[in-house]
Amino acid sequence: MLSSKILAVLSAFVVIINGQDEKEEIRIFSKCAKENGFDLKDLRKQSDIKELSQPHLCTIKCTWEKRNHLKNGKIDIKAVQANQKFLSMMKDKEGFIKCMSAVDNVKACDDVKKILNCTEKFRVNYMQECAAETKTDLKDFRQRMQGKKEQKNDKIPENMLCMRKCLLEKKGVLGKDGKFVKDQTKYDHIGVRMRNKEEYVKCLQGISISKCADVMKMAACYKKDD
Ligand SMILES: *[C@@H]1O[C@H](CO)[C@@H](O)[C@H](O)[C@H]1NC(C)=O
């Protein structure tokens, strides 16, 4: 009963539109997903580079190629450097560029892990920041998100809920007033895979979140879409 509802609520932004919640990015990503047989619903399942499916990896490779950051297996470093939006997500921009400069021979879908290893290492890590702030064990959180952990009695620990709230805030999906920010919500990783985005956003805009437990109110908006 619990599982899918809670899963949806706890699911953080997972992987990886490379952090750009931009319409154009989303358009490319969706197109690539379609071409590679990747179901956007699966975005909720995965959180670790090691666990990404082939269709997902191929989709990511495709997006890099379509936005001309990857050509014939080579990173176009100039293009990456010019992508300010993308770079703004990096904690250590120089380190990231250096790491990316060493990436070569991205031919098979699996090879995009070379890119992902760089982004993972150098990006601002909301997951880690929020885990520290809410004293949440990340492994535990991931297992719950992936439904690997039996959850009895509808009891979700308070810090898990706070973790979810924290992620929404850091991503700018949830404003300081506890209301959902329209554009961010629509193109958040969960929003992306909703069939009826308009309704989903409208639904979320009807609730407000002040306490951690309030994130459970979001479940109603996921349910409508299923
Ligand atoms: C990515 O990083 C992981 C962990 O550090 C490592 O085991 C793996 O070999 C790396 N993958 C690639 C393709 O560089």
UniProtKB/TrEMBL annotation:
Source organism superkingdom: Eukaryota
This protein's name: Uncharacterized protein
Keyword Signal (UniProt): yes
Gene3D superfamilies associated with the record: Pheromone/general odorant binding protein domain
Signal peptide: 1-19
CDD domains, alphabetized: PBP_GOBP
Keywords: Signal
